Amino acid sequence: MTPSRQPSGNVGRKLKCQMRRLTGAALCCVAMSAQAQTPVFEIEIREHLFYPSELKIPAGQKVKLVIHNRDATPEEFESYELNREKVIIGNTQGVVFIGPLKPGEYPFFGEFNPKTAQGKVIVE
Amino acid sequence: MTSALIIVLREVLEAVLIICMLLASSSALGLRFRWLPPALFAGLTGALIYALSLEDISMAFEGFGQEIVNAVILLLIMLLLLAHNFLAMREFKAPKIARLPALSLLVLSATIAMAMVREGSEIYLYVYSYGVVAGDMTSVLAGGAIGTGIGFSLGTFIYYGLRTLSARHCLLFSSIMALVIGAGMSSQAALFLAQADLVPTSEPLWDSSALVAESSLLGELLQAVIGYEASPIATQVVMFAGALLLSLAAMGIGIFSVRNISANPGAIRTHRSNE
Fold first, then answer.
1. B203 closest CB neighbour out of A90, A96, A101
2. Tally of structural domains, chain A
3. Both A95 and A47 in a single domain?
4. What is the pTM of this model?
């Protein structure tokens, strides 16, 4: 590729493209290595209530949340503060990744039983 | 009852906004409403199929089927709204002479059907689990009826509001609405992908929940219109901006594609004879 033939803008674009690909690959590796050490936390839904209703997780870290629905009816795990929503069919389990988050309290609720099914994630 | 009202209103709001805006566009594009019943029927059928196969969908893709299907539906609606904007801008630049009726019908019907699949399935699931399974049908129906009523009143208001404008201004306003609704959907899609750990996540960039809480009425309305999120992550902001730019580009291409026709109406004859 001789610079005299090719407009320099094109070379720059190609380089940028390559760089983007490389960063993409690097991000992928980081994501994979992070996944290996992602802490796992579990919550149960029984009689339209969350157990435990308060869950402590570490700050600044992505966390895997496994939600077991022991009821026959579906429930939607929902949180405005965590920006998460997921329907969990009766007698199944669902996985939701949350964070990384700053320290604080993040309430969640069951959208189908918002009055009773309440809980919060405490990040510290 | 209030929880049923809020759940139904939330889901109805987004679909109603899109449907009423597209109906207004449809008349400005010179299309009759004959396409609407089949589109609504397809949407309802799709919503029912989605709700009934939710269990299988949930189990698919290592338990992230819901997130992936939701993200795909959202991005598809975003692309369809982009196509709407392309068509609307052609009509805006060259009224009545550069119409693409078949493509317009396809885009409008598909958008409405997809919007209904997304919202309808959640309403169905709620009504089924708490009306039929838990046996609390009265409050579900009462709340649902009021929620639907409010949603449709708002929709009527938007539709007639847009229709009082001239066809060109109606298309312009519809396109602006489609622009922000589409970008909001793209940002919501980012959230679903983050939930499934499929895109890079970070700590939220800011927190405006003290200003407008997502759970407030204004918050819900803003969420339906611009995909408002009080504490967004960087990926959401990037996908919002990306969708906005793509749609603006489509609008530019729409205007560019008919510039000769509108500058010289006589050119339409040669344009047509070439086809």
1. A101
2. 2
3. yes
4. 0.84
